[in-house]
User: Fold this.
Amino acid sequence: MTGIQKYKYQIVGISYAICVIFRLLWKFVRHPIQYVRLLAKKPPSTRPECLLDESFGTHQFIQLKDVKWHCVSKGNKDKPLMLFLHGFPDFWFVWRHQIKEFSQRYRTVAIDLKGFGDSDKPSEITAYLTSKIREDIANLVRALNYKSCILVAHDFGGTVAYHVATKFPELVDKLIILNSPHPAAFLEAIEKSSSQRAKSWYMVLFQVPYLPEILIRVFDYEFLRCMCGGGRLGSAVTDEEIQAYRYMYSKHGFSKQLNMYKAALSYRKFCDTVSTEIDIPSLIIWGRDDSFLDTELAEMNKTYLPKMKTKLLNEVGHWPHIDKADEVNTAIQDFLDEK
Assistant:
């Protein structure tokens, strides 16, 4: 991307940021008392009980070269490995419903991606290039003493998973992706679909220096509630679980997580490296009411995943594993049971 293109990109991001700010201010005008209470509510100073729940498994750190990765593991080590990769703005906790469901039959390991949760947070943006993260994931599988895994991923974690499956197909027995398009399919949609360009506003905003971090700090978790159109923090998420996110991001901040999107400025080159077919049995689970991704992207993945099956869920947003955990778990198990 040239300097002029990047400058224009940032101008667009600022325009979107202004729209978001006005939306937040309008919410304040309509519900001032509720908003003041929200802003006055301090993030918890200690970890909420839900993050200490031993039923999710054992917390551990794995050192890989110069980066330490945090993960939560549950299940017998002689069972097949099921590895979970979260997206933005999540951490391992987003897979809580799947950990409890599958840890009887598999060794479940939910990691905090680099820059998220309790994993290390390098300051260099280049450390967040997906080509580097895929190497880390491959080394992580080996460090767990496994030769391969069932790879389950969502959002930007899906982007990483596509990279891993392309570069290290021998490490992936089956690929399960939730609301995350193949990078080449996403690039095609960005070029051809005005709807998808509009839905990708946040990716533009995240390129603007300092402004996203300021917005998130000023408006606390309400910024993410607004960004997700209310669906992310609806009835499927309890107040304690919301506090878990507030605790995690008050502790670690947001700047390093945004580096994933800043590193993705080299998107065209990135897509070229994963444009080949992934010849691995794959399941795409897709919430139709996604505020960020067109449903058509689910089927566009088939160009790159010839062994793909699709499960579309109605009245489900960008986080199907939270919105309809039981349906998602059933779809995953049915797929894994197929020979």
Notes: The two ends are 45 Å apart (CA to CA). Strands lie at 58-64, 67-74, 81-85, 107-111, 149-154, 172-178, 282-287, 308-313. The chain has 17 helices and eight strands. Residues 227-234 have pLDDT under 50 and may be disordered.
